[in-house]
Amino acid sequence: MNQDWILSQQVGRVLTLTLNRPEARNALSTDCLALLVQHLEQADADDGVGCVVLTGSARFFAAGADLRELQQQNVAVTLTDRRPQVWRRFCAFSKPVIAAVNGYALGAGCELALASDIVICGENARFGLPEITLGLMPGAGGTQRLIRCVGKSLAYRMVLSGEVIDARQALVAGLVSEVCVDTLTLEKAQWLAAVIARQAPLALRAAKAALKQAQETTLENGLLAERQLFTVLAGTEDRREGIAAFFDKRSPEFKGR
């Protein structure tokens, strides 16, 4: 495993993780994905990190899974593959994740963007799940997250044809929250991450957990989970500080307690 596949930089409470496999167009091999998750798990345990930004290069966010790795797999190997567990670990990350996407986000790269909490992209961004053109199908949440994100018709079209959509289509469909000038994508994502990272840490974790429930369960169960998390926050010091700061007309000083 090459440690340089993931570059890490922290400014304030924002950690930026950059995919760095230029020779493979940032393809997400299992080892590369596992290294990314290791960084996230370290960030999850670090009180000094409030939000994470994931990014790639100017031309490639991530061009997919590593096809050479897939080429070696048969049914038996696929059944015992550790990759699904690595993806589950990614999804267990409790702090906000913003994907800053320039260039191509294809296959596993698109799935990585879909698994992130917020996506900001440049005008040159392209999103797609082209696995069908290789006799495959998405296998890391692509079918499930895409249809929840962009709706039935577009999801079917993208998955069954392998068609790629551009940044403006992704914005209209709800896959991304903002389209920027390419050179400003990372800066915009880091600015938003800094805004998020200033909020109360326990409230951020609770809010993210509640939002995930909305995608994974019924409305009734989601409302119940939301209320439970809301109630738990009532006992935190940060909640008392946030309300006191509002009435005092000052900025709150959250402690994560």
TrEMBL record:
Q: What is this protein called?
A: 2,3-dehydroadipyl-CoA hydratase
> Coiled coil: which residue ranges?
none
Task: Please give the CDD domains that the UniProt record associates with this protein.
Answer: crotonase-like
InterPro entries on file: ClpP/crotonase-like_dom_sf, Enoyl-CoA_hyd/isom_CS, Enoyl-CoA_hydra/iso, Enoyl-CoA_hydra_C
Supply the PANTHER family for this chain.
Answer: ENOYL-COA HYDRATASE, MITOCHONDRIAL, ENOYL-COA HYDRATASE-RELATED
Q: Is the keyword Lyase in the record?
A: yes
Provenance organism: Limnobaculum xujianqingii
Report the superkingdom from the record. Bacteria
